[in-house]
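Supplementary Note 3. Input sequence used for the single-chain structure prediction.
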Amino acid sequence: MFFKRLGNVRIVLLGEYKITTGCFKRTSYDSLFRQHRVLAQFLDKPLKFPIVSNGMGENRPVLKPKRIAETVLLVLFALAFIIGIGLLLIARVYGGIGIVKQRGFVEYSVSSTAQLKKELALFSDDYRAKMVKPYLLKSLPPDFGKCPAKERVKLFIKVMLPIALVANEHFEAQRKILLRICSKMRSSKLSKSDKRFLNALEEKYKTKNVKILLRRVSGVPVGLLIAQAAIESGWGASYFALRYNNIYGIHRLHVRKGEPIVVVYKSLYDATISYIMNLNTNPAYKNFRIARASMGDHPDPYILANYLLFYSVKRHRYVRLLKTVLVQQRLCRYADFRLTHGFWLWLVNLL
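The predicted structure, written as discrete structure tokens, is reproduced below.
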């Protein structure tokens, strides 16, 4: 955008013009007419619009829209400008990382531990207020195992905390619907949609007993989840964790020739969902589910660790190791942390 002079009136024009040193390029009325017919037609009329000072001792015209259509266009332009600024800010925030939009959360990727540190510094700024943004790391960076042990432990906890909260929210949402359906069963008949949802849960959790189903449809305490992920993956340094996103040591039941012995997951979140489903459906963890249900809405991860005896061949040594990690890293404190769905998540999902 440059300025041109026509007599003593300065007019703003769009286009590419050369500007001479110290003054604006002068032009004739005919030249202006050829380049901008609309402005030329406007200037054919007497200058009846107000003249105000430009702050440099000169006067300039102020053009005001006289039609509703022009006003609407100005408003639309302003909205487009604001949205554009928002997109630029998002590009600035997420520059260099891959974004995958999911329902209720955002999944991002990094190529190095250094880049992961920058993203965690951005996404974990509300941890002191016990509020966690649902931004989930898809996979650990290839050089994560080379990170110093103390630093890797802190990074791993920051990575796993939002993943654990989002995964638990997934199961708790199913549980709320199931509780609503159970309350309906006592007073009235179920609708077709309720029956379909109940049948889907019964098939997924491998039981048609509603009481057993209520025990199975539930999450896992965040501290216990992070502790198991840390032990099974060596705080994110194991080959299976870096290559296959398998951070819980879940093996295949039937291994074919050429396939890895562990289950391959697309993301850390998928691995976490599979881990919780394993605890919720495997007969080996029946006592774990009974103890969890008896504790109500706030199960104690330290006590529940006693019921994971069969998760490892180490048996009692594994339980003691779980408790040690829970205490040393103070993982039980994350029971009070909650997800926060802020404006930027809404804007990213809107796009």
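The chain has two domains: 2-61, 98-350. The two ends are 30 Å apart (CA to CA).
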